[in-house]
Amino acid sequence: MSAYDFDLFVIGAGSGGVRAARMAAAMGVKVGITEDKYLGGTCVNVGCVPKKLFVYASHYGEDFHDAKGFGWNVEGTSFDWPTLRDNKNAEIQRLNGIYRNLLVNSGCTLIEGHGSLVDEHTVKVGDSTYTAERILVAVGGWPFVPDIPGKEHIISSNEVFYLDEFPKRAVVVGGGYIAVEFAGIFAGLGAQTSLIYRGDMFLRGFDNDVREFTAAEVAKKGVDLKFSVNVEAVEKQADGSLRVSLTDGSTIDADCVMYATGRVPRVEGLGLENLGIEQQANGAIIVNDTFQTNVPSVYAVGDVIDRIQLTPVALAEGMALVKHLYQGQDINVDYNLIPTAVFCQPNIGTVGLTEEQARAQNHDIDIYRSEFRAMKHTISGSEERTLMKMIVDKATDKVLGVHMVGPDAGEIIQGIGIALKAGATKAVFDSTIGIHPTAAEEFVTMREPVKQ
Ligand SMILES: Cc1cc2nc3c(=O)[nH]c(=O)nc-3n(C[C@H](O)[C@H](O)[C@H](O)COP(=O)(O)OP(=O)(O)OC[C@H]3O[C@@H](n4cnc5c(N)ncnc54)[C@H](O)[C@@H]3O)c2cc1C
Question: Is the CB of residue 405 less than 8 Å from the CB of residue 214?
């Protein structure tokens, strides 16, 4: 009989927490888990899932337009925001139910409320306290909105999914993937959209070629890109609209101003200070190679440790931790070659090194690059173009990085990610027979490197 209420107590039922809790319970571990807001976490409620549904929705405008070239008469289309929002809400509710069942059916005790650390073996939820041999902190992150005049008029990704009305004019502020995706969503659904970013090019960290190509494509779809400028203030006008004042002295009138200027670990009110748990300057919990904090009974995974903020990474960390703690396995999370996508229009898919990273790491590289109009757009009338790029190490012939901007780039790059993890060389790509006619076959038919 254990001296504790639980073997493992998880704070936060998001991607990392739920996966760890379920897996541990399936191994016979006595698990308690607490959640105060989003059963299933950010991804399911205000992240990946509803966003992708909105991305699908936003694509229809373009699809209707493209359909004409294929003989379809699609006059009289219109978009109804409440239908999209409410259908999305119903789907998220369904998923919340699934997460609840998954937890309960796997034997976890789900306690709804805000969890905080009391001591190294005790968590407080509401008025109750629970003891556990080990505690896992998987509280994720929260949108960061800087303090500017008029902050109260600004929404973040938490609110954008529930707007009462769809804006006619939207301003999105930020240069990361969430900002770029939402600019595409607003524009695709018919809002006059501006994207404001203080740097000179969005999507820092992506291949420069990809960034510039994407900027050109996003602009073609009607998003007004304003780089090297920032917002000074947001002011509510007499008619209820919002006036956004920029640092270059100009103003933009909008009905909705969304900030996507980064996320911070959601550690407020968590009681980390009660245990002296070490944190980075941004609040992220510091853990060692086995996700253990400086307090040996307390572990942390996912966005709150601020390694790579992606759902599959949080899942992998949660699984690896549980297999380590309860089956004695080594931690096997590989942070290299993580494929990722940006669901802007068109999509970006990427895996491995960018050209800039490869050069900085002193690789002598060949670049293979192809830019074309996809077959569909030969008669759709769309001006959209696709970019594909491969970075190859000359000495070993190993493919170091693969990047794509084009329809379904995320779907295509997932498979390429497996090839890169397997250590594929350019010769392996070249000897692979293409699937014809696809855009993806271009990755196995690029013969001549770019002249450098
Ligand atoms: C708009 C948006 C789009 C995204 N799109 C993608 C995408 O396309 N692909 C992708 O891979 N990733 C995407 N992400 C990132 C992804 O959602 C996160 O990386 C992932 O959810 C991290 O999982 P986690 O378990 O660390 O945290 P979360 O999923 O955030 O879960 C943490 C949970 O803990 C709860 N919690 C916090 N504090 C407490 C407390 N004290 N007590 C009780 N409960 C608490 C929270 O309510 C939350 O449910 C997106 C994120 C956003 C915001």
Answer: yes
